[in-house]
Structure formats: structure tokens, C-alpha cells
Write a structure and sequence with these properties.
mainly alpha; single chain; 61% helix
Length: 170
């Protein structure tokens, strides 16, 4: 059975790398300036100075739909749903929407805890991180978000990797 999970983890990692690769190639060939101005947030994520991605995601209403679809998909993902077992889902949704809104260049400001603090003691592995990224990508696809926008948002979330993974109870 562990061989099956190892293969699934490898496939998830390959899919994430493919998504990032497609995003980078699409930027190279599209010259999509509306996605290029950026600044780094406190957590190290990339926030945008303009709102091109925010608009491509459907604005606040679109981001709320993405969050709802993410939570729906998450509820059926046995690999990662346990991380949300003791979570106030309403608060999580509110903070998640604010975070995605800010990262996409929207008018929202994420005022929640740092990603390192939120994930401390959770022992999040690479396979878990990849599964969350894949679940988010699928939620965006379910909402009809263009592939370039899906990839752009994932690329802006990628710098959070180190803050999220393997945080200990320091």
C-alpha cells in the first residue's frame, strides 16, 4: 500500500511542477504585464501591485467561490482533511479569502497570523503541501478560472512553502 501512496505523491509533485512550468512558459510567451508587478508580504508570499490576477479570479465574489469549492474538495480529501479537524472553518474561510484576495492584487488585507505560526506543530510533509496545492488548483478549475490565472496564483503561493512545511513546536 505504501508504494501506491509514494506513486501518488510523485504524481502530485510532478503535476505541481508542470503547473509552475506552464505558468512560467505562459508568462514568457504572453508578456502578461498585468501579472508582473509584485511585492513580498511579511510571510514571503508575492502580492501584486495591480489587480489583473484579482480580476481574472473573478474579484472578491470569484475568490469566495474558489474558497467554497476548495473547502468542498478538501472535505473529500482523506490525505489532508485531518489538518482542518479542529479548525473554525468560518474563520479559516474568511482568512483564506482575505489572503487570496491580497495575494492576487485585490483590495483586501490579510491580517491573520503568519503562515509559520498557523502551521506550527502540524508536521506538514511535501506530499501534504502538494495535495493542498492540487486541491486549490482543481477548485479554481471547477470555478472556470483560466489556466494562466490558476498558475499565477499558485506561483504567488509557492514562496509560503517553507513557512508552512515542517513547522515544529518551537
Amino acid at each position: 500500500m505504501s508504494g501506491r501512496y509514494g506513486r501518488r505523491d510523485a504524481l502530485s509533485a510532478m503535476r505541481l511542477l508542470l503547473i509552475i512550468h506552464v505558468y512560467l512558459v505562459s508568462l514568457l510567451f504572453s508578456g502578461c504585464a498585468s501579472y508582473q508587478k509584485s511585492e513580498t508580504t511579511v510571510d514571503g508570499a508575492v502580492s501584486q501591485a495591480d489587480d489583473g490576477l484579482y480580476r481574472a479570479l473573478g474579484g472578491l465574489e470569484g475568490i469566495e467561490g474558489i474558497a467554497d469549492q476548495f473547502l468542498f474538495r478538501l472535505s473529500g480529501n482523506d490525505k489532508i482533511v485531518h489538518f482542518w479537524q479542529n479548525t473554525n472553518i468560518e474563520r479559516f474561510r474568511t482568512q483564506f479569502v482575505s489572503h487570496l484576495c491580497e495575494l492576487s492584487g485585490g483590495p483586501c488585507r490579510y491580517e491573520g497570523d503568519s503562515m509559520a505560526d498557523v502551521h506550527r506543530g502540524m508536521d506538514i510533509r511535501q506530499s501534504h503541501f502538494n495535495s493542498v496545492a492540487e486541491t486549490l488548483a482543481l477548485a479554481m478549475e471547477d470555478q472556470g478560472i483560466p489556466t494562466a490565472a490558476v498558475n499565477a496564483l499558485l506561483a504567488r503561493l509557492a514562496p509560503l512553502h517553507d513557512a508552512v512545511r515542517n513547522q515544529t513546536d518551537r
